[in-house]
Design brief:
Structural class: alpha+beta
Number of domains: 4
CATH topology of the largest domain: Glycosyltransferase
Number of strands: 22
Low-confidence stretches: 1-24
Strand content: 5-15%
Distance between the termini: 39 Å
CATH architecture of the largest domain: Alpha/alpha barrel
Largest sheet: 5 strands, mixed
Mean pLDDT: 93
Number of helices: 26
Length: 722
């Protein structure tokens, strides 16, 4: 499912919420859950069950259909439907009389969400949340939709009408219902092997891969780009960091001459920069507090959908960091820092985990926390700073959004400074002060709700961003945060030797999915590269061995999204395409390639190749669906450089060599660091048998464990890496 389905349900629903307020004091079974989304529904008059056997047993015993409602805590239209329907005594009475009702947080159960979203899309032609699916007592879907209004209007049936019709069909037209349900059972049975062709055993020594599919993919991505505003496609516009990352990787191939694509040269980087510049200047970016909102409802990045997701910010921090390393433009470094500082300030648990989301709504109004009136600005800032802020952010008395202002940068700082008779450096100093004062003023408002559960996979993505930024920018605070998060994931989020999906208020729960194990392993590898502590690499390798043992499907040479010992559902999901986050398969394959390069374990690379080689043609034809898997293909095609820095990490000469590596954008590389004879050199194959050079720290640049002559001089290392 693509990002663009995310708010499809909202298209039918532009109106003010209706319905009875929560004037009741029920609690239901959701009161015992840890998910903030489920707890939001714990006082509904609906007799909600969490997902589990109890609900299905009751449905079978009473021969009732199941009403499955799926959403998440930062979803605006989920709140609307909850207020209009689930808090309404009459509607809840109908639900309770006619159905067994199950509520699911899609962030806790991506497997349930993925399976039934496929059914919703097949039945309605679209998807989105809140998702409403009606199931037989064995879990087979037969009718579905997204948002339903509280009464019939605009040609849409109201939710009570839908409830009566579905119940009637189940009671009086059981053969039709059963026929539809059986069609889905069959669909899920077949889907186990969907789109994957068995790959023969690959001879890696004979494998010579051509980078041409990467050029084709880049060409197709560029054709989808908006040459005026940046980004892909038309409104609504999502950032799509995975597509941007792939384009940055292809740019490095063009520069190195390892890819001959004359039609890409000179076209590619300007479009990526245009996109990064417009996003960072737009309303989609929080100009006061840092961090990106979910997406823009318009093509010009001006009006965001205001929720903030941990995964978007993890992926975009890495994209801006990569762009900074490639171009040297300080603005990109600044955006990366502002994102990570925001995460440390507002989205980090004292125990070390990163929280999931911040809501779009505060005080029941979408975006209210983030909007400004000109009078607010004038009451907050001294006159000279206010004049600059009004110019820079385009603040007017009329506003640019429902009578208020969404802050966005409407002219370059140097132009605003010149117009006000300031030097650029004066203006730059003032902007820092302006942001600080506006942040303080905004902090007095009612903040949006925060979903403070910790999700393993999303934490793995943010761990990687933190660790890479620590390395590239020399930030000890990011390194400390990365190590604290890595330790938290391995200690608090792991029980009985297995990683869990979520943690909140001291409780870890739910079985981990492929994306969880693979993303955490990827984050741990980056933490090792940034610290030289072999503990993190050893843990990454243990996770990789686990996901091979429990998620690998040898019959087709690919991964399932759920483990072999996971709860049995109506289907076993296997998603190869990226959605808002990279697919579990793409994260797993990338992790295996990085581990193979650090450990010399060719079996990891072989497994990755078995997934990538058969899929390469489809990936290059549909690059917007396979951005992260194409990045893994880029690693497999190589050359993937193994860089070993041998020396005491605290030694100035070791640091000088590391600085050369860390300053560069080297997407196809891994880094090992440690002293000869140390625990690190014993634990990391890439460091084994690599001596100092005449007693001095040295760098070894290798490929397939065959190394060039060691180098002690930073300038010589820089030349070799070019």
């Amino acid at each position: 499912m693509s990002d663009h389905d995310e708010e499809a349900s909202a298209a039918n629903a532009k109106h003010a919420p209706e319905g009875d307020g929560p004037a009741h004091h029920h609690t239901n079974r959701l009161a015992d859950e840890t998910s903030p989304y489920l707890l939001q529904h714990a006082h509904n008059p609906v007799d909600w069950y969490p997902w589990g056997q109890e609900a299905f047993e009751r449905a079978r015993a009473e021969d009732k259909p199941i009403l499955l409602s799926v959403g998440y805590s930062a979803c605006h239209w989920c709140h609307v439907m909850a207020h209009e329907c689930f808090e309404n005594e009459e509607t809840a009475g109908l639900m309770n009389a006619l159905f067994v009702n199950i509520k699911v947080d899609r962030e806790e159960r991506p497997d349930v969400d993925a399976l039934y979203m496929q059914a919703t899309q097949a039945l309605t032609g679209g998807g989105g949340w809140p998702m409403t699916v009606f199931l037989t007592p064995d879990g087979a879907p037969f009718f579905a939709g997204t948002y339903f209004p509280p009464r019939d209007r605009y040609g849409m049936p109201g939710f009570p009408t839908v409830l009566r019709h579905v119940s009637e069909a189940y009671r009086d037209r059981r053969e039709d219902v059963e026929r539809q349900a059986e069609a889905f059972r069959e669909f899920y049975r077949e889907q186990g092997g969907l789109r994957l062709r068995p790959s023969p055993d690959l001879d890696l020594r004979a494998l010579r891969l051509d980078p041409a599919p990467l050029a084709d993919a880049a060409d197709r991505l560029l054709a989808q780009m908006d040459a005026v505003n940046g980004g892909f496609g038309r409104a609504p516009k999502f950032p799509h960091p995975m597509g941007l990352d792939l384009l940055l990787r292809v740019e490095t191939r063009l520069r190195a001459g390892s890819l001959v694509a004359p039609d890409l040269r000179g076209r590619l980087l300007p479009l990526v920069e245009l996109t990064l510049d417009h996003m960072a200047a737009g309303g989609i970016y929080d100009q006061v507090g840092g961090g990106f909102h979910r997406y823009s409802v318009d093509a010009r990045w001006q009006v965001p959908h205001f929720e903030k997701m941990l995964y978007d910010n993890a992926l975009l921090a890495r994209t801006y960091l990569a762009a900074f390393q490639l171009t040297g433009r300080p603005r990109y470094r600044g955006v990366c820092i502002e994102i990570l500082d925001y995460v440390l300030r507002e989205m980090t648990d004292p125990a070390g985990g990163f929280y999931s989301t911040q809501d779009a709504d505060s005080e029941g109004v979408e975006g209210k926390f983030y909007l400004w009136d000109r009078d607010d600005l004038r009451a907050t800032l001294p006159a000279a700073e206010c004049a600059l802020a009004e110019r820079l952010f385009g603040v007017t008395a009329e506003g640019n959004f429902e009578g208020h202002n969404i802050l966005r940068i409407v002219e370059p700082l140097e132009d605003a400074a010149a117009a006000l008779g300031l030097t650029e450096s004066q203006a730059r100093g003032m902007v820092g002060s302006i942001r600080c004062q506006l942040y303080g003023r905004r902090a007095e408002r009612v903040p949006p709700g925060r979903d403070d559960k910790v999700i393993a996979g999303w934490n793995g993505l943010m761990l990687r961003a933190m660790a890479e930024a620590a390395r590239a920018l020399g930030r000890d605070d990011y390194r400390t945060a990365a190590e604290a998060n890595a330790a938290f994931l391995l200690e608090s989020l792991t029980t009985d030797g297995h990683l869990r999906r979520t943690w909140r208020a001291g409780r870890a729960k739910g079985e981990a999915y492929l994306e969880d194990e693979a993303a955490v392993a990827g984050g741990l590898i980056s933490t090792y590269e940034g610290t030289g502590n072999p503990r993190w690499l050893t843990a990454a390798r243990a996770l990789a061995d686990d996901f091979i043992a429990r998620f690998w499907d040898d019959a087709v040479g690919g991964f399932f999204d759920t483990a072999s010992d996971h709860e049995r559902l109506i289907g076993r999901p296997r998603e190869l395409t990226d959605n808002a986050t990279p697919s579990g398969t793409s994260l797993a394959v990338e992790t295996l390639l990085r581990l193979a390069a650090l450990t010399g374990a060719l079996a990891y690379r072989e497994r990755a190749a078995r997934v990538l080689v058969p899929l390469a043609p489809a990936m290059s034809e549909q690059p917007s669906s396979f951005g992260h898997l194409l990045a893994a293909l880029d690693d497999l095609i190589g050359p993937l450089h193994e860089i070993a820095i041998v020396g005491a990490p605290a030694d100035a000469a070791t640091r000088a060599l590391l600085d050369v590596v860390n300053a560069r954008y080297l997407p196809r590389s891994v880094l090992a660091v440690g002293e000869p004879g140390s625990e690190a050199s014993r634990a990391v194959s890439l460091l084994a048998d690599r001596p100092l050079l005449d007693g001095h720290p040295a760098a070894y640049v290798c490929q397939d464990f065959v190394c060039q002559a060691p180098i002690a001089e930073p300038t010589a290392l820089a030349a070799q890496l070019e």
